[in-house]
Amino acid sequence: MANAHWLFGDQLGPHFVAPGDGGPHRDAPVVMVEARSVFRRRTFHRAKAHLILSAMRRRAAELGDRVTYVRADTYRDGLDKAVGKAQVTVHHPTSHAAMRFVRSLDQVTVLPARGFLVARDAFGQWVGDRGERHWRQEDFYRWVRRERGLLMDGAEPAGGRWNFDHDNRASPPRGVRELDVPPPYHPREDDVDDEVRHDLDAWERAGDVAFVGRDGPRLFPASRREARAALKRFVADRLPNFGTYEDAILSADPVMSHSLLSAPLNLGLLDPAECVEAAEAAWRRGDAPLNSVEGFIRQIAGWREYVWQLYWHFGERYRASNVLGHTAPLPRWFREADADAVEANCLRSVLGQVRDTGWTHHIPRLMILGSHALQRGWDPAAVTDWFHRLFVDGYDWVMVPNVVGMSQYADGGRMTTKPYTSGGAYVHRMSDLCGPCAFRPTERLGPHACPFTGGYWAFLHRHRELLERNPRMTRAVQGLDRLTDLDQVLDQWGSPNA
Q1: Do strands 152-153 and 156-157 pair parallel, antiparallel, or not at all (unpaired)?
Q2: Where is the sequence biased in composition, kind Basic and acidic residues (predicted)?
Q3: How far apart are the C-alpha atoms of 137 and 411, rounded to whole Å?
Q4: Which of 406, 433, 407, 421 is nearest to 249 (CA)?
Q5: How far, in Å, CA of 456 to CA of 182, rounded?
Q6: So where are the chain's domains?
Q7: Does domain 120-185+221-314 have CATH number 1.20.1090.10?
Q8: What does the pLDDT look like over 144-156, one tens digit per residue?
């Protein structure tokens, strides 16, 4: 009889049990372990816990008699209950901690990773061929496109350009509350959702676990069928309008034209290849413009893939990076996603979205939540952990590079070429959040001063010696010399959590 194959809770698509190319035996029985200790160790968003358990239990139902589904206190206990000391296989886990654990078990054979476009050894070869000073994300993205023939016309990129980013930075249309696009796919809850919610309630009442955030009707796919329906809806109805306002924010329309596919992708319900191929096919049929299709493909074949590779390439010590020496603790209102305790409208609006859904798109994450944390000097490890726990699509491999490297610039530029932060003018230009706010993006002093504007100058001053050596930051740092009120700005905004 074939060895059993173990599925983690983010390995739920059919490609994780497919034989061949390093997969399990076609007749392998399947093991799944629902370990309560995962939720006991950390305070996750309630909607995230609900989504993961709903997805796992649905997958088990699909697999039927082939699966042994164990609810246990720990993975070790569950595996022992399922197979004892028998040999099992498992595809490459998605975190260093999980990899350490499976490597510690003599009975486990680790198979190659699935759910990504590029094999780890292929990335290592690419890095080795180029040298570590020449493998920025844009270089990697172009290489992936060439290797897979993705959005290519022969040897050249479709449309004669690799990157349509400059076409995808429009401010939101003025005077509208929502984009005029069809709504995203929304799943229908069923008895599985009710069962999971009942269990989570019981765990909380018993004091066994605690959650943060609200668990409203489920917004994200929890099965392969739902994930496929969500992809089809996005490509047909929303992809054509995705690119132009990709970086824009409307307070009453948090989803805009975004796909909402990151959660099912990171659960393994979708394979990235089918997502990018569906988008390219839409362009070739004439159903979606190239700037939208390229922007979407870049998110998956470029950024998502790059983040996965860097997580393993940089290794475990990378998460402790703190070049800027930021050590301030996260304030309680942020830890608990207490949007009602926040006065600044942009922070209140975005934090409220996180509290209510466990999701916002990439610009609120980077340029509002992440930028505020960076300006206040919050401990980057704590910020990373918060993003991991509070976002439905947040996993260790996702958040360590995204937060440590990009959002908090804690690695000093190993991953990105500059810190991603700004004054209130950027938020005002790219959103409708500043109009009803008590603070004014043009003011850096006084009771109506924007915390992003004052915080931006205080951040530049605090790290001037480091940043003025960065060619992309030179002009911004030189702006400090033109501020006649810098001392007062530092008095108001110079301390963490100001």
Answers
A1: antiparallel
A2: 163-180
A3: 16
A4: 433
A5: 37
A6: 4-111, 120-185+221-314, 319-493
A7: no
A8: 999 999 999 999 9
Task: Say if 120-185+221-314 and 319-493 have the same CATH topology.
Answer: no
10 Å CB burial of residue 409 (0-12, 13-18, 19+) is buried
**pLDDT, the chain, mean:** 96
Query: What CATH class does 4-111 carry?
Result: alpha beta
What CATH topology corresponds to 319-493? DNA Cyclobutane Dipyrimidine Photolyase, subunit A; domain 3 (1.10.579)
**Residues 153-178: what's their mean pLDDT?**
94
Q: At how many degrees (to 10) do helices 46-63 and 191-205 cross?
A: 130
| 10-64 pLDDT tens trace | 999 999 999 988 999 999 999 999 999 999 999 999 999 999 999 999 999 999 9
Q: Is the pTM of the predicted complex or chain greater than 0.85?
A: yes
Given this model, what pLDDT does residue 21 score?
Answer: 87
CA distance 335 to 349: 16
